Amino acid sequence: MIAVIPKSPNSQKVAQAVDFLRKKGLEARSVPWNDQTLLVTQHNPASTDVNELKESGIAERIVLPSSKAQLASREFQNETSIVEVGEARFGAKKVVVVAGPCSVEGREQLLEVAHAVKRLGVTLLRGGAYKPRTSPYEFQGLGEAGLRLLAEAREETGLPVVTEVLEPERVGLVAKYADMLQIGARNVQNFALLRAVGRSRLPVLLKRGMMTTIDEWLQAAEYVLLEGNPNVVLCERGIRTFEKATRNTLDLAAVPVLRNTTHLPILVDPSHATGSRLLIAPMAKAAIAAGADGLMIETHPTPETALSDSQQQLDLREFASLMEELEAVAKAVGRGIL
Amino acid sequence: MIAVIPKSPNSQKVAQAVDFLRKKGLEARSVPWNDQTLLVTQHNPASTDVNELKESGIAERIVLPSSKAQLASREFQNETSIVEVGEARFGAKKVVVVAGPCSVEGREQLLEVAHAVKRLGVTLLRGGAYKPRTSPYEFQGLGEAGLRLLAEAREETGLPVVTEVLEPERVGLVAKYADMLQIGARNVQNFALLRAVGRSRLPVLLKRGMMTTIDEWLQAAEYVLLEGNPNVVLCERGIRTFEKATRNTLDLAAVPVLRNTTHLPILVDPSHATGSRLLIAPMAKAAIAAGADGLMIETHPTPETALSDSQQQLDLREFASLMEELEAVAKAVGRGIL
Amino acid sequence: MIAVIPKSPNSQKVAQAVDFLRKKGLEARSVPWNDQTLLVTQHNPASTDVNELKESGIAERIVLPSSKAQLASREFQNETSIVEVGEARFGAKKVVVVAGPCSVEGREQLLEVAHAVKRLGVTLLRGGAYKPRTSPYEFQGLGEAGLRLLAEAREETGLPVVTEVLEPERVGLVAKYADMLQIGARNVQNFALLRAVGRSRLPVLLKRGMMTTIDEWLQAAEYVLLEGNPNVVLCERGIRTFEKATRNTLDLAAVPVLRNTTHLPILVDPSHATGSRLLIAPMAKAAIAAGADGLMIETHPTPETALSDSQQQLDLREFASLMEELEAVAKAVGRGIL
Amino acid sequence: MIAVIPKSPNSQKVAQAVDFLRKKGLEARSVPWNDQTLLVTQHNPASTDVNELKESGIAERIVLPSSKAQLASREFQNETSIVEVGEARFGAKKVVVVAGPCSVEGREQLLEVAHAVKRLGVTLLRGGAYKPRTSPYEFQGLGEAGLRLLAEAREETGLPVVTEVLEPERVGLVAKYADMLQIGARNVQNFALLRAVGRSRLPVLLKRGMMTTIDEWLQAAEYVLLEGNPNVVLCERGIRTFEKATRNTLDLAAVPVLRNTTHLPILVDPSHATGSRLLIAPMAKAAIAAGADGLMIETHPTPETALSDSQQQLDLREFASLMEELEAVAKAVGRGIL
Question: How much is the ipTM here?
Fold first, then answer.
């Protein structure tokens, strides 16, 4: 149950409601939500108690979501959320394209990409400074030096920056440089990390795990939301299946499934999903046609020399030509990019 | 290896080539292919032997495909095949929409759908007369009575008909009524059936199995092609994964993967892939954006009363509105439907 | 619902029961079952009708299985079925080991294996004459010549023979030579074939499909049982997953899951499941410890020269040593082999 | 490459080797390993350089593992590692059984289980104090209070304790109370956490992720080993597949696959793998027959009241009877438990 508590006299009403629920055997969490206060319980009270809460004026509105991801549900909020990061408005009519290299490798590489994608209509720059790698022997990212380069690229181009954070205790550091925090596929159920980015109140880009059901993914988002951070954007990036012709299997049906169940904006990352440059353009167009609110695409000045994911990054010419194709598809479904 | 044998004096050249290869330890199959004769061997001859075949004039052209699905490969035929079934031209610029009910249930139901979809621009009618059902207690289709109704619908509307065949010994019967034979997901590696539809020379719609890799699927197509039947259309219909929010996981990346490796036209079936009416429209649009040559969509006058797959059939109003949306997306990617 | 009809006067009671059910809107199938007649309906009658059927003496016993695989359910038959093929008694206390080469390749190969495994306690010889192969270019088996060799091996050793059948119209031919018919993984939902082997009344070895849930597999068995053939043995052979270190993922938990739900005997095939000689012995022992009623193991005089599956066949020395280890594990779980 | 550096004069030789490798373009990590020092590089030096390292006496031994998980490979260490935690010796002849409740729920519950399992031959007590839960609304464990109860149970019974740690910054706290640190399935690629438990030098129980390949899992173990912590025990706990009859699919073939590639001891957790009390005993026996070095089994005084995983915990009577059955199987494969 979610109870929306009136603003005034808020603290008194919250105390009353918590007390009321405790007597009914229900522990409630108090969640600041935009300028409101919510009380959320795991289980629903009896319907007579629900009525009493409403009629007594303790709660302004009571929602009994059918989903376990209560704050993420459309039953709680019917209209799609708009998450703003600079000029990027995830969930609005325009499709947002996030682009940049897999890893920040150096000043020149990053600035070249940043300027190029900015010119092409990209509104958010991506780049990895801390890289989660299967093998401890592989390139692990530039760390804080990479963060500083991202901040410099923002300074130069005006593009806000999203980058991945891997550990709860690094959230503060990354938040000093970034405008949006990315939770990678491997950390989708790293609950301590989810709580930490929730508390940061920065916008969060939450990637689906390669082994995570849509339902589990929404419950992971709920960990962030429950810290009072409503700025969560979901990003489908492929799931693991028996098929090995692609790196992962892009589950595009997740886009309309999510659209029907959650108000959170939905991105698609065709780069990680396919692992192959040749497949990025068709899947990016398909994602927009399926209703995605945005795309995350890896671009690199010289993909063949990239320190990570060299097979799946577009060069800048390929990326420019993709942007044109995307605009046409976005218009065909009543949206647009530029 | 595929050797293209000159037309004249064909039978003599074929005999020479078979003989030559046998001496090199290679068994060759003779495959009539449009108006040519091909000799196909499992393994490649030594390069000196390849040269000798060409220089001696026994072979017009030699192809050494890197894929095991040799006749299906783009190395053998670079341009996309066009498979014609009446006015439906799979693989041509226009996107082909195949529509109709999951099962043929009766005269009225079928004719109502047939007339409606014909009006909306559909060029091929689908309908199941023999239904493969998980349980022996479920509706198994009307059998030959269903075939007769399909033939009647064709008579009335001019729409050619595609329907599933389940057994080698029924291929002849089904071929009497149908214009295109469908091999369902469960039969994608029913090799006797593949050979039988190959020999029929009717166009074949080959669905992907729900746990078939793209590579295995192409090798299944090779069974049909090797009977001298070049008219194969592939149809992606979702694979089985851990995710249960959808009936299957539509693997749309299969479309561009196939586009790069095979000349066979590629269809997508969003109805079976998703199992849910709400998801069909977004995934149909996504399929076209990803480059599919066509769609197969289940429609029913009253889906809620359908004898099979009632959750995943569009009613005729929904279908009409989908066709409009599809046209817009098809144009955005340089194609069209109507 | 399954209604067991009294033997005398049987045909009259059957007619009465069919009539009674039809009036209630239920179509019943009459199934000969050992020396009884069963009437089986897809849906259950109202409980008052169930009572009437029993009290009127039309039915001796009424079963309302919770599973869709009614005849396969433990609710219909509580004790594990014993399926006899010569001296092999699947489902009895002793663990049955089925062994032989993947493919019948020639007289010498087959007889050498047959004599060797017979000496080691094997009670059923396996060998493929018709081979379902992913590629049309691969060895497809010796066909009827292979069947004749199997019959000769039986003649020489006294071992009964199990071999795969791929097409409904070949069931009669294969049944002339074999004592048990194998349905391979790719054909587990080839319903025409299931019905055909059901009608043959020969014992049937039904392999699980690599994409088939346990529930779907039991419903496939139901197709065979419903033809009045109670002699079905299930064989787990691995399912397809994301893990590629083994050819398939052996789902050993299927053994106790099936034990709790069906009375059909359960075999395990560690050769196909793992695809690797090194893994066969540990997984064979594990299968027995998990409660399997038997094993199917590929053996070959010289695995490295085998025409199919050369990586997963044990040589005769390895097989002999495995049999000893298996005996110890079988005894530890209260069973035995020899 | 792994170079084993002589003990004396160690620091000098290490410096020499690092220097030598750097000149060849290779960065080496210095890893304390038992009482030795290892230098490990991602890529292999040229064979002439390998020879020079050996002949010069800078390295005692050079290993060039074929696997990316170099320190985990049998090529580096041929005999199975023995990881000791109190009297539990993972990797030795005796099979180790780890048991205890899913979550520590209270003093009485834990002590009752601890005393009972101790009497039955268990040598390591498990119990969760920090629980990773799919939903933020579910019971998250008692936290440090739970750790204190575990320490008390150790005090009372003499059983060492293993418990899960979820965050790098909690490793120190958990290490104060526990004898072995568990990394759960969701954290198998939480690389910061892996490094932190590596640095703790406590023995580590590393569960496989539900969608982690065996190869990726070993590379995760490498993160721990590379911190100089050789005490890693692997634990197979089921992978995620399409089959839903069990909670996960226990991949028992992982046991012999790992046996052939790594020296690390291998446990199996049939509780989480199956999610069902009825399946635990058969799969536990199968695990031992497949060659596992130990088992982890959830037990609870009253499973039906458990705050987590109530479907998959054995009661103490069931557990006692299982221990007897396990002893028989362990003896049949030349091992034993008690």
Answer: 0.96
